[in-house]
Design a protein that fits this description.
The chain is α+β, with helices and mostly antiparallel strands. The chain contains 18 helices and 29 strands. Residues 1-31 are annotated as: Disordered.
Length: 797
């Protein structure tokens, strides 16, 4: 039984307000936009079932401890409690899961490895009853030494967090507490260093950032009559969830049916499982639907975060600014479980040089197992950390050379056919120098924007804002630039494909297209783009998007800026198959009446079949009649290959995207407060499938990068405990923190991609952070080697 109100929380039809011009390159209204703005959109946390129970998770208060004993008796005796489950109650031999390495226990067994790890589950008839019962579960712990950094993780006597690990990375890492290590060696960096006139080094640090999505983890599991379960959930990757869930439940995949519910943002934080298995276990144990909704506090423990990083870089250059070599070492903290750490290491290593031509490099990137919170996918995926460091280095090198920092970047900027440190040639446009030129040429915002006609300052425009801490005294303006490179799509030999099913039929006398994929709409606007593609390819106005579920083949994850490329490519491909079937039917039924039916190049436009010259052959509805035309198929981009584990060479990424920023900031140099006045961006998107949505993606990514620069950090103490799991203490940019964000969109087509498009959502998150830091450095003269920047980094305290 589907939950009341439908499982998706979004209308399935995309016809409202689109008109006839709503194809590729247009900006039709989003069907979920009005509902989200007015608060009427149904998210997964809004789902309801008349006889449902509520689930609750008991979590560890320790970062590393042995579980000595566990007593659930008192919890079971509480009125209203229907089930209490521990590791011993799991129904199948498979009791771990994971995106790549199945090292994460469904419920802790023997010991806990991070603060907040799930230990037991409760199902009750009211959420407060479930929480009170969970508090009555008695767990005795014996605390163990904590692994919290590289030194403690790789010491000779370090506790092994996953002893006996036998995953495919274990054989090539120098210590069992290293998840994965990727070196990249090209040319001879040591010899090239001897040719450098100037060498600069720097050590940098990136804090742990949270995805801070709007809707906390939530879902509803409904037991089925066939012994299976129907799960309605907010996620980024339905089929990956299914692959991990079914074995733990002891069920075949066909008995675990998953439907996407309304998703309140993701940014990588929903790529891993959270409450999915727990809700299903409780539903199957009680025979009742079970809903789990995390509160904000629990959400901070319930999903992975951005990897904190320590980075050491060395760059050399000739006196005229030509880069001679680059050496770097990147250490990412993966936390207690692997999640996406191996892939994040690959990204950080392969993109660590940035969008620059450097022939001689020596790179090492690795991720650690520690007792800190697990880290995995987040917008930018390893490239963010590297970009902060290499862009700081470019500014440092420019200062040492006495050169304009933009000129230095342009002098070394890659272009099409440039060869990356992995040996891969960039075989599509790479307008790095042009992006920098555009942001630099943009007019500067006016000075002293806080001044008003009456002479009293507008504190909203000052550093510190409405806290009213300064009226302009000691405020200095700074300007900074940065540019970044981000891969698009899954990489390193991953079979990155998507599936689409498209049906064309007559409804009410009009041809209507029905598009079905498993793509997770997480706010990026993918359902709008899919309808645009169907209108363009099939020549219809009416398009309906079916809810995403596992009744159709996988669409992969809504991450890596890949969905418009890969699932959009699948929709386009399958629309072409449908079009050919329609034309074949037309030839069979009507071809004898007009010789043009026998020619190639017929089109579907305006609900009609027409020749390339525009001659109408037949209304589409007449050709379809009462028999719909349907097709389903998978679509893949060209393959990638794994990086060599010794040299890092290989065709690892299918596409690259580029963005540049200019930041203008005003800093109260006496109080250490920063106001970002403007963050101008220029980005190449290949083809703006939906121009309004593209600008929104760029502006959203820019603000997320600003958050990392100045505000956002999960604070973990030396005991590996999270100290600020709330939006009271974890600060994210508000509207008052958001600057003017003018966007300059380039459309330089990638010949290998559908419509020439280029994934757009992540690149601006890279370059906005170092641009803000460069501007703050310019205003203060401080080195600022760590993000986020705090007031005490700017002023002496």
């Amino acid at each position: 039984m589907a939950p009341a109100g439908g499982p998706t929380g979004a209308p399935s039809t995309l016809d409202q307000g689109v008109g006839t011009r709503a194809g590729v390159g247009d900006s039709p209204l989003r069907p979920d936009g009005t509902l989200k703005v007015t608060g009427e959109f149904a998210y997964s946390s809004d789902m309801w079932h008349e006889d449902m129970l509520w689930g609750c998770t008991l979590r560890s208060p320790h970062a590393h401890a042995e579980i000595v004993s566990l007593d659930v008796g008192e919890a079971l005796r509480q009125a209203g409690v229907h089930a209490v489950l521990t590791h011993d109650d799991l129904p199948a031999a498979v009791r771990n899961y994971g995106l790549e390495i199945p090292d994460t226990p469904v419920l802790a067994h023997g010991r806990v490895r991070h603060h907040g790890e799930p230990v037991a589950l409760v199902a009750a008839d009211h959420p407060e009853t479930a929480r009170r019962a969970a508090a009555k579960i008695r767990v005795e712990y014996r605390e163990l030494p904590v692994v919290h950094d590289e030194e403690s993780a790789t010491a000779p006597d370090a506790p092994l967090l996953h002893p006996g690990r036998d995953d495919h990375h274990a054989g090539h890492v120098p210590h069992p507490n290293i998840v994965h290590r990727q070196p990249i060696v090209r040319g001879d960096a040591a010899a090239a260093a001897g040719r450098a006139d100037v060498v600069v080094t720097g050590e940098y640090e990136v804090g742990m950032q949270d995805q801070a999505f709007l809707g906390p983890e939530s879902g509803l599991a409904v037991p089925a009559e066939d012994g299976g379960v129907d799960l309605y959930v907010a996620t980024q990757w339905l089929h990956s969830d299914l692959r991990q869930i079914a074995p733990v439940l002891g069920l075949p995949e066909e008995k675990v049916r998953m439907t996407l519910s309304g998703v309140g943002g993701a940014f990588g934080g929903r790529e891993d499982l959270s409450m999915q298995i727990h809700a299903c276990l409780l539903a199957l144990a009680t025979g009742r639907p079970v809903k789990i909704v995390y509160n904000r506090f629990e959400s901070f423990f319930g999903h992975v975060h951005r990897h904190p990083a320590r980075l050491r870089y060395e760059h050399g250059a000739t006196r005229d600014g030509k880069l001679t070599h680059m050496r770097c070492r990147i250490v990412l903290d993966g936390g207690a479980y692997a999640s996406a750490s191996p892939a994040v290491v690959g990204n950080a290593a392969s993109l660590s040089v940035g969008p620059y031509v450097v022939d001689d490099v020596e790179i090492e990137a690795l991720a650690l197992y520690t007792n800190n919170p697990p880290c995995g996918a987040m917008r930018g995926f390893g490239a963010v950390q590297a970009c902060f460091a290499y862009e700081a280095q470019m500014d440092k090198l420019a200062a040492e050379l006495g050169m304009d920092p933009v000129e230095l970047r342009q002098r070394n900027a890659m272009a099409q056919d440039a060869v990356l440190p992995t040996g891969q040639a960039v075989d599509s446009p790479a307008p790095v120098a042009e992006l920098l030129r555009r942001v630099k040429a943009r007019p500067m915002p006016p000075e002293a924007q806080w001044e008003t006609v009456g002479g009293a300052p507008d504190v909203r425009a000052l550093p510190g804002g409405l806290s009213n801490t300064t009226h302009g005294e000691g405020v200095v303006r700074g300007v900074g630039y940065a540019v970044g490179i981000k891969n698009v799509g899954f990489s390193e030999g991953f079979d990155d494909y998507s599936t689409a099913r498209v049906r064309l039929e007559v409804v009410g006398g009009e041809p209507v297209a029905l598009v079905h994929t498993a793509m997770a709409e997480v706010g990026q606007g993918g359902i709008t783009v899919h309808a645009q593609i169907a209108r363009t390819e099939l020549g219809v106005t009416q398009v309906t998007i079916q809810p995403a579920d596992t009744r159709v083949g996988s669409a992969g994850s809504t991450s890596a800026s890949r969905q418009t490329y890969v699932t959009g490519g699948a929709v386009r491909h399958v629309c072409a198959l449908v079009r050919e079937k329609v034309l074949e039917r037309g030839r069979e039924r009507l071809g004898t009446h007009h010789p043009a039916w026998a020619t190639a190049g017929l089109l579907l436009e305006g609900g009609k079949i027409v020749t390339e010259g525009g001659e109408v052959l037949a209304p589409l509805a007449d050709v379809l009649g009462d028999e719909p035309v349907e097709a389903e198929d998978e679509w893949r981009h060209r393959p990638t290959e794994a990086f060599d584990l010794r040299t890092g060479q290989g065709f690892g990424h299918v596409q690259y995207s580029f963005a540049a920023h200019r930041a203008v900031v005003e800093v109260d140099t006496e109080l250490g407060l920063v106001k970002v006045v403007e963050l101008a961006c220029a980005q190449d998107v290949g083809k703006a499938m939906n121009p309004q949505a593209v600008v929104g993606q760029i502006q959203g990514g820019t603000v997320q990068g600003l958050g990392l620069a100045l505000l956002e950090e999960i604070v973990v103490d030396p005991g590996a405990k999270v100290r600020n799991p709330s939006f009271t203490d974890y600060l994210i940019p508000t509207l008052l923190d958001t600057p003017t964000i003018p966007v300059d969109v380039l459309e330089l087509a990638d010949a290998h991609a559908p419509y020439g498009l280029r994934g757009a959502g992540e690149a601006p998150t890279l370059s906005s952070t170092p641009a803000v830091l460069a501007a703050v450095r310019a205003a203060t003269g401080r080195a600022l080697r760590r993000v986020p920047v705090r007031p005490e980094h700017i002023v002496d305290v």
